[in-house]
């Protein structure tokens, strides 16, 4: 949540903002689900913020605000705040654990210093021992001091073992939070943020090691028709189906991501053009070969097809330019009749 909205919802204007949010959602025909309400808090409370501007742009298209739209916006904009809170919680737990370890170490250090002093004192008295009773008392003192030091060392050892386990749990938890923040909630593919970061890193790596890199952009054909005919829940079903096929195709080191509403992307590192084209045509064939049925009514939806375009990274080319060329190839597939793959290099050569 932005600082502006966060301050407002904790002040006297909070209830007025909440009422405006509900009124605005009702006027826009948006259901007041928890995710939608949080999104609309940003839209109404900070309309010039990044999320507010994006919602305004979507509303301007007159398209219904579907579940897939809200999930995409939530995965793109909301996890950052939640991630920060998770990190703060983990930081507090880590501080507490480290403080406890530091206290135990300090106590052990004190005990060791006392033990050293006891040994030094005993060494000084040893020469002056005159009888068995005095020797027995001295040995008893040393035994007590040794037992105390051993107990403190054992306490420190157990505390360090416990802290090691807790830190490992925190690390695992933060890694899960990071994965959640980079995953599209509807399709379970990488989200736009993860895609952008991965593409930039892949382009840098390809330029550094001189290896190939190919980017494919994929769009579901006539997706609006599915939504208008069958409703957005069925549209979400189609999105999940296409994503499942892409996910099976794009095993590591490939990466599949949900790039936009019904747009997807696959990053192919270190693969030749023939391999990329074969993989994409395999995706086209698998997706179009299955007649989908509406889950709620079992009505047949017919076949789903996709269009794809791909581009191979050129020397010194930026990620943005690579994406632009892949997009151009995708639009060529659309213009050419859909349900096909277009190679940007061949398109440019023909032009």
From TrEMBL:
CDD domains: GGDEF
GO molecular function, one term: diguanylate cyclase activity
Domain GGDEF: 211-346
Keywords carried by this UniProt record: Coiled coil
Gene Ontology CC: plasma membrane
PROSITE patterns reported for this sequence: GGDEF (PS50887)
Catalytic EC class: transferase
One Pfam family hit: GGDEF
InterPro entries: Diguanylate_Cyclase, GGDEF_dom, Nucleotide_cyclase, Rev_trsase/Diguanyl_cyclase
Coiled coil regions in record: 153-180
Superkingdom of the organism of origin: Bacteria
Enzyme Commission numbers on file: 2.7.7.65
GO biological process: cell adhesion involved in single-species biofilm formation; negative regulation of bacterial-type flagellum-dependent cell motility
Keyword Coiled coil: yes
Name of this protein: diguanylate cyclase
Organism listed in the record: Brevundimonas halotolerans
């Amino acid at each position: 949540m932005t600082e502006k909205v966060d301050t407002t919802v904790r002040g006297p204007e909070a209830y007025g903002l909440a009422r405006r949010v509900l009124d605005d959602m009702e006027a826009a025909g948006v259901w007041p689900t928890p995710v939608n309400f949080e999104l609309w808090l940003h839209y109404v409370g900070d309309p010039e913020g990044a999320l507010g501007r994006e919602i305004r742009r979507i509303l301007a298209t007159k398209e219904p605000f579907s579940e897939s739209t809200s999930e995409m916006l939530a995965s793109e904009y909301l996890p950052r705040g939640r991630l920060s809170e998770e990190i703060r919680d983990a930081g507090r737990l880590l501080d507490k654990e480290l403080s406890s370890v530091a206290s135990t170490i300090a106590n052990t250090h004190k005990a060791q210093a006392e033990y050293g002093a006891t040994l030094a004192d005993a060494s000084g008295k040893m020469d002056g021992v005159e009888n068995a009773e005095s020797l027995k008392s001295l040995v008893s003192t040393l035994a007590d001091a040794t037992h105390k030091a051993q107990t403190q060392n054992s306490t420190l050892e157990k505390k360090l073992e416990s802290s090691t386990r807790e830190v490992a749990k925190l690390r695992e938890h933060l890694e899960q939070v990071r994965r959640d923040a980079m995953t599209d909630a509807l399709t379970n593919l990488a989200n736009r943020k993860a895609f952008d970061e991965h593409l930039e890193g892949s382009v840098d790596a390809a330029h550094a090691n001189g290896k190939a890199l190919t980017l494919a952009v994929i769009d579901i054909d006539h997706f609006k028709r599915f939504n208008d005919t069958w409703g957005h829940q069925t549209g979400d079903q189609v999105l999940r189906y296409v994503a499942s096929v892409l996910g099976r195709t794009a095993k590591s080191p490939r990466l599949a991501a949900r790039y936009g509403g019904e747009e997807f992307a696959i990053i192919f590192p270190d693969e030749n053009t023939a391999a990329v084209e074969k993989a994409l045509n395999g995706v086209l064939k698998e997706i179009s070969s299955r007649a989908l049925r509406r889950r709620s009514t079992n009505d047949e939806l017919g076949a789903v097809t996709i269009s794809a375009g791909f581009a191979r990274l050129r020397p010194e080319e930026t990620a943005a330019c690579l994406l632009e060329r892949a997009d151009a190839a995708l639009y060529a597939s659309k213009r050419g009749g859909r349900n096909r793959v277009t190679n940007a290099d061949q398109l440019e050569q023909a032009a």
